[in-house]
Design goal:
Helix content: 40-55%
Strand content: 15-25%
Oligomer: single chain
Strand order of the largest sheet: 2-1-3-4-5-11
Length: about 350
């Protein structure tokens, strides 16, 4: 079943109408003239002023409402549309969709005149690579992938391992059982970075600490990033095994991890967004120790800002601890009261930024 956000339902007709208008305008022209119109859709005007329709955002698996990765992207989308007074269209993925579906989604946004157009997640890399050359005047962005490398594409990546190292330090310092857990959504290289950083951080505090590890699925399409029930079951198993702090990098599935940890009164550590502040998790927030942050929203905002100002970012754009692109959220008052944990995390951050500590990625 196709998952469609309320925003998409409200604006789908408008987008469709725009596509019809563009198609009608091309009637009577040669194919080369029509192709040229497509290629310049969403570009800046001859005066240099922004003339695009706004931001086009295509969500990753789990969609908007995951309280994590996609919602982090939406915060940047929302901030940019309000601050720059431009429009925006955010589109949901469909269950079990193909690469062709992603290409069609990006094509739809490009033909409608959105600029920039951002694929939220590495799964959009092939689609961006295919679509971007057709629209050289539009800036495309892909989050969590740096392999597209095209003149009009920004590859927005992060040092997830650094934020995860801080999560590992916090977990090891907070654990009374000297036993912690890691739950990854999908067994892929990107999530291996989260695990590697977490394990290294925890072992920097206690080399003998016991660490449970679990990946929910081998492939993204099998639900590893979109199934809270899978996350809950995995967390239950790790808690039964003795873990009293669990860190997840599992998108929407992480809601289940946090819910189970809160129900069993053990610590959970969130990811990407400050999950302590998420309304959907308010019932369990007292047991969210902190969150390993990845400023996906900032990346969306910064790319949009660069396009609106006529100086679009391209190439690899990397966020790390030094730049503020990743970090560790400390919103929970209980965490702030644990001065030994706070001090250890701050010291670890200083060591990484200074180069004293290099965090592994696998």
């Amino acid at each position: 079943m196709r998952r469609i956000s309320r925003r998409f339902r409200l604006t789908q007709a408008a987008v469709a109408a725009t596509v019809v208008v563009l198609a009608a305008a091309g009637c009577g022209k040669t194919s080369s003239e029509s192709a040229q119109d497509d290629a310049t859709a969403g570009s800046s005007s001859s005066s240099g002023a922004y003339s695009g329709k706004g931001i086009g955002l295509a969500y990753d698996i789990g969609g908007r409402g995951d309280q994590s990765f996609n919602d982090a992207a939406y915060t940047g989308f929302e901030k940019a549309t309000k601050e720059f007074k431009i429009g925006g269209q955010d589109l949901e993925p469909s269950d079990g969709e193909s690469e062709a579906d992603k290409v069609q989604r990006l094509e739809q946004l490009a033909r409608a005149g959105y600029n920039p157009i951002i694929g939220v997640g590495f799964i959009y890399a092939p689609a961006v690579k295919e679509v971007a050359p057709k629209y050289p005047k539009i800036t495309f962005g892909v989050i969590d992938d740096n392999q597209v490398q095209a003149p009009n594409v920004a590859d927005m990546v992060f040092a997830e391992e650094q934020a995860s190292y801080l999560a590992g330090v916090a977990a090891a310092k907070a654990s009374k059982a000297k036993h912690v857990g890691f739950i990854g959504g999908v067994d892929i290289p990107l999530i291996h970075k989260f695990e590697a950083g977490f394990v290294q951080g925890a072992q920097s505090v206690d080399p003998k600490i016991k660490i449970e590890k679990r990946y929910l699925t081998e492939k993204p399409e099998d639900g590893g990033f979109s199934s809270p029930s899978m996350g809950k079951e995995a967390a239950s198993g790790q808690i039964e095994a003795g873990a009293d702090v669990i860190y997840h990098a599992a998108g929407l599935s992480g809601q289940g991890v946090i819910q189970e940890a809160g129900a069993k009164k053990v610590w959970a550590i969130g990811v990407d967004s400050d999950q302590y502040k998420q309304k959907a998790l308010a019932k369990y927030k007292d047991w969210i120790l902190g969150s390993a942050l990845k400023d996906v929203g900032g990346a969306v905002y910064n790319l949009t800002k660069s396009v609106v100002e006529g100086k679009p970012l391209t190439g690899e754009q990397r966020g790390d601890l030094k730049s503020g692109g990743v970090g560790f959220a400390d919103s929970n008052p209980k965490y702030k009261a644990m001065t030994d944990v706070v001090d250890a995390v701050e010291k670890a951050k200083e060591d990484i930024v200074s180069g004293k500590v290099t965090v592994k990625t696998e």
